[in-house]
Design goal:
This protein is an alpha+beta fold. Helices cover 50% and strands 18% of the residues. Strands 1, 2, 3, 4, 5, 6, 7 and 8 form an eight-stranded mixed sheet that branches. Helix 2 packs parallel to helix 4. It is elongated, with a radius of gyration of 28 Å.
């Protein structure tokens, strides 16, 4: 999840990326063809293409942040791809191209497109994407922009496109007609053939992607998984029913429930309005239900969240187990609680009794609002049973999410 402070920082960084990319592109185009990467052919360069990509992604990301809706998992892959692509732009310019251009390298358009945009984009990645789930196989996607450009530049070289006056290639290391050719070496620029440059840059891209994944994982673990022993151990509680007298128990019920959170810091629950043997009550409760025969617990929680919330989720971790009793119906409940990240929301699939008897609806609350709602609904016997069971789970989830501090 992203805090209010991080949301503000991210929006500022996105604004910087967008403004610097647009300004740098306009200034480059206006500088004329006598300047490196200037004039009307400016859009033929990877630098400008990656800057416009960064501007578009930043604008879309700002809209997602302002809408405060769950962000699909694929978005984090797009952000990683953009960050690596723009890092390549900055690194190649600063360490490969600029040394050959001397003072001419550090013009305002070049500083905007090769320094400010990459720096702000990468900073925003670590501010806004710590909560995303990215895997090592996502690195394959970061290769798409640069390899697409290599193909594009190769077509341009073969077709004789003029990237700059007298040159049918955009950068010296993509000049297939140089003395080094494709696989050779020479004692002057580009020193080695295009194949070797592409191989070198592929290693840089993959290394950068791995570094960013590792840093994101470290930041996420610091925020959620490395704060203390309490957070790492599963919760286990055994509760009794103090509202109705115990007579006997005639069945155990395996139940799955979830604290569902989104990237904006909101939590999702169900509201039930019931009038049955437990009495008339309006309740807040975690979404969930009974485990079907032969069903795995994580599969059951995904099914229940899809049915009651219309949510596709990622199961982040198990919070723990709470054993409690409903003496009125002689039932022992074994509640398996999970922490789940909302990926998307769609149509709910409620059972007839959930519609007609419980009138289930969805609650989207902040952590403090959820605590207050449980406390306010603990004014009936069934409300107290639910609050006694779920408030400790909510508190543990708050610690796992970094909302409340964890004692070391």
């Amino acid at each position: 999840m992203i805090s209010k402070k991080d949301r503000i920082i991210s929006l500022i960084l996105k604004a910087v990326v967008f403004a610097a990319a647009v300004a740098g592109t306009v200034l480059s185009a206006a500088s004329g063809r006598h300047v490196f990467m200037g004039g009307g052919t400016v859009f033929m360069y990877f630098t400008i293409q990656s800057n416009l990509f960064a501007a578009a992604v930043s604008a879309a990301g700002a809209v997602l942040l302002l809408r405060k809706k769950p962000v699909p998992g694929a978005w984090y892959v797009v952000r990683l791809v953009m960050a690596v692509a723009i890092t390549l732009t900055g690194a190649v310019f600063c360490f490969v191209l600029a040394p050959t251009m001397w003072k001419a390298a550090w013009s305002l358009p070049n500083i905007l497109t090769h320094v400010i945009v990459p720096a702000a984009s990468v900073a925003d990645l670590f501010v806004s994407c710590r909560q995303g789930e990215l895997k090592k196989h996502d690195l394959l996607f970061v290769l798409i922009p640069p390899f697409s450009y290599v193909i594009y530049a190769g077509i341009g070289f073969a077709a004789g496109w003029e990237f700059s006056p007298g040159n049918n290639y955009p950068y010296f290391f993509l000049n297939w007609g140089s003395p080094a050719g494709a696989f050779g070496f020479s004692d002057r620029l580009p020193f080695m053939g295009c194949f070797w440059w592409i191989l070198l840059l592929t290693g840089l891209i993959c290394g950068t992607g791995l570094l960013y994944l590792a840093l994101l994982e470290k930041l996420k673990n610091r925020g959620r998984g490395g704060k203390g022993r309490e957070e790492k151990e599963e919760l286990y509680l055994e509760l009794s029913d103090g509202e109705w007298p115990f007579e006997y128990t005639d069945h155990d019920r395996q139940i799955v429930r979830a604290i569902v959170f989104d990237t904006e810091g909101f939590l999702y629950f169900v509201r039930a309005e019931r009038n049955d043997a437990f009495g008339r009550a309006t309740l807040i409760e975690t979404s969930g239900g009974g485990v079907e025969p032969g069903e795995e617990l994580e599969g059951a929680v995904r099914r229940e969240l899809k049915e009651e919330l219309g949510a596709e989720v990622e199961v982040v971790s198990k919070i723990g187990v709470v054993s409690d009793y409903y003496n009125l119906i002689h039932r022992h409940n074994i509640n398996n609680y999970y922490l789940c990240r909302a990926l998307s929301f769609g149509e709910r699939h409620l059972m007839p009794d959930e519609i007609e008897d419980f009138h289930l609806s969805t609650l989207r609350l902040s952590f403090s609002e959820a605590v207050a709602e449980y406390e306010s609904r603990a004014c009936t016997p069934i409300g107290r049973l639910i609050a006694n069971r779920e408030l400790p789970v909510l508190m543990r989830a708050g610690k796992m999410l970094g909302i409340i501090p964890v004692e070391e």
